[in-house]
Amino acid sequence: MKKDKFGISIGIVSMIMVFAVLCLVVFSSLTLVTANREWKLAKEYAQSVTDYYAADTKATHFYEKVITENSLREGKTMNFNIQVDDKQELDVAFTRTAKGFRITSWKLVPTQTWTTDDSMNVWSGDDE
């Protein structure tokens, strides 16, 4: 006599399908998190570029104003800073020469001092 078996039989095909769906869910979640972070990073970068070029435009207008007014004597140097954001500023310096004006500095400089992070004990190379 044959007994009827009642129960759930899970075959190899079903287990492969469950594994495949689980992999798809994990990879899609990772993709979503990565895309979100990349979007935020792109917005931050776009803002920093916009801030830099706004400061660069202000510096250029000021430089042109000094040139057109001839308000700087020969041999003299003019320095000025334009705030880009709360962490950096544009440092500009130019000198009046016999031939005209010469830009000696046009660079971004940090406004905050950098401090090292000494919270981790890192091996210094000494065996002691």
List keywords for this structure.
128 residues; alpha+beta; 3-stranded antiparallel beta sheet; 1 helix; 45% helix
Write a concise synopsis of the structure shown.
With 128 residues, the protein is an alpha+beta fold. It has one helix and three strands, in the order αβββ.
Structural features, described:
The protein has 128 residues and is an alpha+beta fold. The chain has one domain. Helices cover 45% and strands 22% of the residues. It has one helix and three strands. The chain has one helix at residues 12-69, and strands spanning 77-83, 88-97, 100-110. Strands 1-2-3 form a three-stranded antiparallel beta sheet, covered by helices on one side. β1 and β2 (88-97) form a beta hairpin. The chain is elongated and about 105 Å long.
Largest sheet descriptor: 3 strands, antiparallel
Could you tell me the radius of gyration in angstroms?
32 Å
| CA(first)-CA(last) distance | 80 Å
What's the total helix number? 1
Domain unit count: 1
Structural class: alpha+beta
Helix-strand pattern, N to C?
HEEE
Mean pLDDT: 88
Number of strand elements: 3
> How much helical structure, as a percent, in the residues?
40-55%
Low-confidence stretches: none
Write out the strand line-up for the largest beta sheet, numbering strands in chain order: 1-2-3
> What proportion strand?
15-25%
What is the overall silhouette?
Answer: elongated
